[in-house]
Known about the structure:
The structure holds 3 protein chains of 3 kinds.
Chain A: H1 2-6, H2 9-19, H3 21-39, H4 54-57, H5 86-122, H6 124-138, H7 142-162, H8 169-204, H9 207-214, H10 219-256, H11 267-275, H12 285-313
Helix pairs in contact in A: 2-12, 3-5, 3-12, 5-6, 5-8, 5-10, 5-11, 5-12, 6-8, 7-8, 8-10, 10-11, 10-12, 11-12
Chain B: H1 14-19, H2 21-33, E1 41-46, H3 60-69, E2 74-76, E3 83-85, E4 88-93, E5 99-104, E6 109-111, E7 114-115, H4 118-129, H5 147-151, E8 163-167, E9 170-174, H6 182-186, H7 196-202, E10 218-224, E11 228-233, E12 247-252, H8 256-264, E13 270-272, H9 282-285, E14 291-304, H10 314-322, H11 326-334, H12 362-371, E15 383-388, H13 396-412, E16 416-421, H14 423-431, E17 437-443, H15 450-453, H16 470-480, H17 485-503, E18 506-518, E19 523-524, E20 540-541
Parallel strand pairs in B: 1-12, 1-13, 15-16, 15-17
Antiparallel strand pairs in B: 2-3, 4-5, 5-9, 6-7, 8-9, 10-11, 11-12, 13-18, 14-17, 14-18, 19-20
Chain C: H1 2-27, H2 42-51, H3 58-70, H4 85-120, H5 125-139, H6 142-156, H7 172-199, H8 201-208, H9 213-225, H10 227-241, H11 245-251, H12 256-265, H13 269-297
Helix pairs in contact in C: 1-13, 4-5, 4-7, 4-10, 5-7, 6-7, 6-11, 7-9, 7-10, 10-13, 11-12, 12-13
Amino acid sequence: MNERLHLSPNQRAWRRFRRNRGAAAALLVLLVLIALVLLWPLGKLAPAATVLPKAMTHLPDSISDTPFAPPSWEHWFGTDAHGRDLLSRVCHGARISLLVGLVGAAVSLVIGVLWGAVAGYGGGRWDSVMMRFVDVLYAMPTVVFVIVLVTAINAKLEKWQAGPHGLSERHAQLLQMAGLFVGLGAVSWLTMARIVRGQVLSLRRRPFIDASLVLGASHARIVRRHILPNVYGVIIVYLTLMIPSIILYESFLSYLGLGIQPPQASLGSLMASGAEQINPIRIYWWLIVFPGAVLALTLLALTFVGDGLRDAFDPRGES
Amino acid sequence: MSMASRSREQPPGAGLRLLALWPGLMLLLAGCTGGEPKADLVIINGPDPETLDPALGTGLEDLRVIGALFEGLARNDPVTARPIPGLAESWEMSPDGCVYTFHLRENLSWAPGQPITAGDVIYSWLRVLDPRTASEYAGQLFYIKNGEAYNSGKIQDPSLVGAQALDARTVRVELNHPTAFFLDLCAFQTLAVVPRQVIEKYGEDWMRARPLPTSGPYLLQEWRLNNKIRLVKNPFYWDAAHTRSAVVDCLPISAPNTALNLYQTGGADVIWDRENIPNELLDVLSRRPDYHTFPYQGTYFLRCNTTRPPLNDTRVRQALALTIDKRRLVEKVLRGGEPVADHLVPDGTANYQQAAGLGYDPALARRLLAQAGYPDGKGFPHCSYLFDAASGGEKIHEKVAVELKEMWSKQLGIDIELKQMEKQVYQAAQKNRDYDLSRSTWIGDYNDPNTFLDLFRGDNGNNRTGWKNARYDALMDEANNQVDLTRRAALLREAETILVREQTPIIPIYFYVGFNYYNPARIKGIYPNILDDHPLNAIWKIGGEKD
Amino acid sequence: MYFIKRILFLIPLLWLISFLAFLLVHAMPGGPFDRERTPASPEIEHHLLAKYHLDEPILKQYGRYLNGLLHGDFGPSMKYRNHSVTDIIAAGLPVSLSLGVLAFCFSMGVGLPLGFFTAVHKARWQDYLGSLAAAVVICVPSLVLGPMLIMLFAIKWRWFPVALWASPWHVILPTLTLGLYFAGRVARLMHEGMLATLHSEFITTARAKGLSETSILLKHAFRLAVLPVLSYSGPMLADLLTGTFVVENLFQIPGLGVSMVNSSLNADYTMVVGLVLLYAVVLLVLNLAVDFTHCLLDPRVRYE
Lengths: 319, 547, 304
C-alpha cells in the first residue's frame, strides 16, 4: 500500500497493464510482428551462398514469370498477378501500413493535443472560437474531406518535386506518402482535440492549478508539468484505438486508388486487390487470406493493447 | 431478419423502438419499386451515362444509349458499321467532294401529325454549334463551311453556316474540304436529330419531358441515375417494324465483379466492354462461348513530354520504346487477346496502310541510351510515369505501369517513378504537360486513320506532348486534300512513320479489342465490327428466362 | 432555451461549411471538364467554363452559388449534365435513408444485446467469445466482407439477389455488410458503458435497496450504459444515412455514397458542396437529437 503511493499514475498504469494477460499477449504479438516486418527478408541476414526459398530472399517489387502461383516451398504465400512474392509484399505492406498508422496518428496527436490543450486551457472566447472550427470540420463528410485533401496535397508536392531538387528515390517515395499522412491525420485530429480539451477544461478548474499560478508558475510550465501529464493516459489510449482505424481507412483509399503509390503496397492495398479476386468462378484465395490474416492480426493486437491501456489508466480498475 | 431471433431479455432501448420500423420500411421499399414489368433485354452498359443529350454526350456509355434514342441522316450498319441511310433515304456528293445533298424519308415523324423535317436537322446541328449549348463534340461539325466560325462567335448569322434546308425534305451541306469520312460523321451521335418543339419549351430540362419524342428506335421511359435506364420501342420510328426488343434495360455497373455476378445469375443478358468483367478471370472466360472479341479502333499508348529533359531527346524516347516487351504485356497482364501495337492506327481501319514501328530491341535501346549520355542508365535524371487511378474495379493501368517500370529498370538500368493520380488530376496534368511519360488511350470516332493521326499535329489540343513537326503537318494537310484514297493512304503512312519510328513522341503499346459477353445461343443480332457499334434495335433474345 | 439557441447557431455554421467546402473543392487540381480528349478548339472549352461560370473569380462564383442556395437551388451537376444536384439528392436520399436505417437497426439490434451480455458475464467465456466476435467484425473491411457474403448467399446458395435495388430481398445482404461493422462498434461501446455503470455507486445503492438483479440491470444500468452508444450513434447514423461507397458500389445501389465519392473524384463542384451540406445538416440535427435524448435519459445532465 505504502509502495503504491510512491508510484506516479503512469507507473501504476503500467503495472496494471502487465497484469492484464490478454493485453500483454497482444503487445507481445505486436512486437514480434513489428520485428519480423522490419527485418524481412530474413534471407538477407543469411550468408550469401546459402540456397533459400524465394520467399525468404525475394524483393517485394521484382516481377517473375509465374503469376498467380499458389503457396509452395518457393513462395510461402504464393505470388500475385505480376508473379511477385506475396510474403515479401505482405511484410513490406505491413511495414507501410504501420508507418501510415503511426504517422497519421502522430499528425493527429500533435494537432489535436495542441489545439485541444490551448482551447481548454485558454477557455472563454478562445475556447469557443477554436471549438467551433472543430465543429465545422467535424460536420464535413470524412470521405470528401480526405479525397480533396489528399489530391490537393499530392498535386502541390508533385509541382514542388518537379523542380530542381534532385531527390533520391527513397525520399521521393516518402514524399509521395506525405499527402496520405497529412490527409489521414487531418481528419482524425478532431476527436483528439475534443477529448483533450474536455480533460484540460476539467483540470483547469482544479484548485491546484490556481495554487501554482499564485505561486508564480508560468502558463507554459503549468501546462507542461500539471496538465499534460494528467492527460497522457487518455491520449495513449485514444492513439492505440486510432491507429487501427487509420490503417483501415487507408485500405478504403487504396480501393479508390488514392492510397499508397504502386509498386509499393500496404496491407490495405493488398486487401483491396485481394478483394477483387473474390468471385464465383475461381478464387486465388491466398491473395486475400494472407494479407487479410496479417491485417486482422495487427488490428486485433492493436485493439487489445488499446483496451488494456485504457483499463490500466482507468482508476476504476484499481480494485 | 436476424433481429427476429433476439433474446427475450433484451432491454427496451432505442434499437427496439426503431426495430418496429422494419416492416414498414420493407413495405415502403416494395411499394417504390415493385410491379415493373421485366425487360426483354438487359444490357450492362458500363458507368452511368453522363448525359443522353446527343449534343453533349462524349463517353462510349453515353453514345450507346443516345444512338438508340436519336438518329441522324445516316446510321451505322449493324454488321459492318459502315454508314447506311438513316433519316435520309439517299444522298448525292458533288464531284469535288465538297457538297452533299440529303433527301429525307417520307415516313418520318416525332408523333402522329408531327413530321421530322429538314428544318429539324438544321436546328439540331446549329444547336450543337451554338456556343450556349457548350457541346464538347462541336468539333464534329467543323468540317462544315463556317461551322467553326459560328461556334467561336466569329460569325453570328446561322444562315452563313454551310448547312441549309432546301425544302422540308432536302438538306444541302457544304464542306470546307473533301472529307472522306463525312458520311461516317452523319451517323455519329452528335449529329443526330433532336426534337426542337420540346427543347424550345423546356430548355435545359428537356430530357425530363414526358413524353419525350425521339428520332431513333427507342423512347426513354425512365432514367434513374445509378440504377437503370429503361428504353421502350418508339412506335413512330420509321423502321419500327424491325425493332426486335420492345423493352430494353441498360444497367450502369461500376464494379466488374458485380457485372459478372449479375450475368451469371441471370440478371443481365449482355455485357459491353471488357472493363466490365474481371480481368483476373479473362483466361477462364475467354474459353467460354459467351466471350466475343474482334478488332477495334482503340490504341493504348504512352505520351512523352518532349519539352523537358530527359524525354526531349529522341534517342531516349526510342530507347524506352525499344525496351517494352509488348508481347509479355498482352499475354501476361491483359490476357484478352489484344494485339501488340507498333504503330498508332489500328489495323483494319478503312483507307489505311500500315506503317512500320520500332519493334522490340533492348540491345539497340542500350546503345541509343548510351549515345544520349546515359550508358547503363548512369546519370539518368528523375523521370516519372503518370497514370490514372481506377476507382473500385479494373486496375489495368496500374498493372501496365508496374510491368513497364520493371522492364525499363531491368533492361536500361533506369528507375522511373510511378505516379498514380486521381482521374481529373491526371487529365489536367497531361493537358498542362506536367508529366514526363503518361499512359494514354485514343478511341477512334469514325472509321478513318485521320481520327488518330490528326491528334499529333502541332496545333491539336489533344497532342499534349509538345511535339511539333512541320513535315508531319504538311503531310497531313496534303493527305486530307486528296480525293484519290490510295494516294491519301500512302501520305498518311509516311506521316505515321515519322510519328512512331523517326521521332517517337508517342509509344504505342497495344490495340484494344472489341469485347462483348453474351450467350450466342440466346442473344442474336450482335455483329463484330471495328467501331464496336451494335444498334440496340437489331438485338433480341430467344426464348424466355435464363437459368 | 438551450436547444433553440443551438438550432439558431446551425445557420452560421452551415454557411461556414458551405464556404469552406466550396473553397476546398475549387482548390483541387483538375476541373470537371478536364478529359481524355481536348475539344477541337479552345473556344469550345471557353463555352463550357462560361456556361458553368467557372471563368469568374471564385468569390463571385460563391456568391452566385449562395444566392441559388437561398432560393433552394443547389445548382446543376457538372458531371451529369441533364440532372440538377437537387434531382440527384432527391433520387438517392430515400435509398440511402432506407439502407441506413436498416443497417442502424441491425447494428443496434445485434450490438446492444451483445455488449450487454458480455458485460454481465464479465471475464467468463461468454465475455471472451462475444468480445472477440465484436473485435473481429470491426477488423474486417466491408470490401472483403461484401464479396464473401455475395459469393456464399447470392451465388452458391442463391438465397438473395447478387446486386441491384429492387425488392426487399435485395436489401438483406447490403444491410448485413454495412451493419456488422457498426454492430461490433456498438457492442464494444455498450460493453464499456455497462461495465462503468455496474461499478458506479448508484447501482450499489439499488442493490442495497434489495431490487431484483434483472430490474437493476434492465431498468437502471441499461439506461446509463447506453449513453456512450447514444453519443456515437449521431455521427454513425449520419454516415449511414448519407450512404456508404463500398457497399453501394458492390451491390450497385443507387444511393448517395457513390455520388459522394465520385463527385469528389470527378471534381463535380456543385455536387460535392451540395452533398457536404446535406451531410452537415443530417449530422448537426442528429447531434442535437442525441443531446436532447441524453437529457431525457440521464437526469444528471443539464445544458445551459
